[in-house]
Amino acid sequence: MNLSRLYYSIFIINLFFISTAFGQIPQVPAEIEFADLIVRINPQARREIQLDVDAQYRNPNYFKVKQERVNLYMPIIERELASVGVPLDLKYLVIQESSLIGNAVSTSNAVGFWQFKQGTAEEVFLRVDNQIDERQNIVSSTRGAALYLQKHNNTFDNWMCALVSYQMGLGGAKAYFGTQYNGKRVVDIDRNSHWYFKKFLAHKIAFENQIGVFASNSNQQLIEVKVQGPTTLAALAKKYGVSENHLEEYNTWAKNGKIPGDKSYSLVFIKQGELPVQEAIVQQPTPQKSQNYTADKNSPAYKRANSYPKVAGNTTKASEPDQITVNDLDGVQAPKSTSQTKFTDQIGIKEKKFRRLNDLEEEAPIEAGKYYYTEKKKARAEVETHIVQPGETLWSISQKYGIKLSSLKSKNRIRRDNELKVGMVLNLQESRKRGEEIQIIPISTPKVQNTVVAQAPVRKEAVVQQSPATDSKSTASQITHTVSAGETVFAISKRYGVTMDQLKNWNKIGSQNIISVGQKLVIFRP
Asked: Is the pTM of this model over 0.90?
């Protein structure tokens, strides 16, 4: 037998072993959904991407190891991406970047799960010094990557361009793409398309059907604990019943085994469980709810409220764009009271977009000293609840925490400011159950109420605009659609011949277009 025939025989045996172990290797389709895009792939590009998919499956043992890491970390990754409003499809990028090896270092000295260089890491508020390297912390680095991607997508309004900018930088991607894809929702991939995006598609195709599928039978759970220093991994190992070596292996971000007291950090470790891997568990004190509870200046809830909005960055230039973040979102402080037109001209943003980002009415003035957002607010806040204080409005609360006004209203089933009562406990993360009463807590009015109260803009609550299809629900046939893996709002709306806005309005889907597998969507067709 000659050498070439021997190699061919080995190749066939390997293919047989791989297909037996994993089933059929996924094939690259002619069309694929990515984020809110439809990606059409021509035959030559499909062959090129397929080679990368096959390469992922070539070594079964290595694939199994990577598959286990993916399934351990993915719940945290999905949670952090969603909290910033980044489509969950971007989660496959971390596999491409580091294979989910926390202390991976590239030849260009990029480090960690998402492969940040030090300067870029600091831009997204990661601590990198001789004590802490948050590039190696799965929670912090994923949040940083999400902020980076979201910021770049604000420039392109196209997630393919934003993704490629992760490798090229914003300036490089602007030079490469120009504006040809800005706002486009259908993109064509061929032999000339950027290699980085084609490699990403290979990772998405290779792993999207492996999420939740474990290669081994070990019932492992990744536990996430918020810890506040100063403390050590040795002390935490005793507290949580794991070995110090284990904590060091999964928390290489704590370089010398010590955690400083500057802020809370996410510590992760693995424990055996009776169930397959679940969503990451964040262990933190749960406030006791009691009708007799009285909130005062010593109340933990009160302290948390007064710490918002969280402002970071170059606060000496807070009135200039790209200098500060407000609740981890790009923002700016108004130096003086003025009109929206003058203010948006000064910070270089379109007036309509600025109003949309801040839930402002057209006639609302800009108030001196107030913070305004220059990127989309979130669908949920960092803290669970807020106790309504005298003078607050739905708008001022939404601005305080960086939560969308529509989300705040929806979560609490409140539509107008006159429904607010002092002491109400509003939900900022989970939606209130239908029929559930809103708890009201007696509070002592603080002497000074100036840092947390914002004047509400004039809002026209009486006018409710509905699409024609929404107006005609009584004469339309109702369809229930169950969301399957990989489906998007765009694809579902296209399938049923309705607009994305109609589908979102009918099902109270936020502007981030987040839907989940198994979710029941109501669709009205004439």
From this structure: no
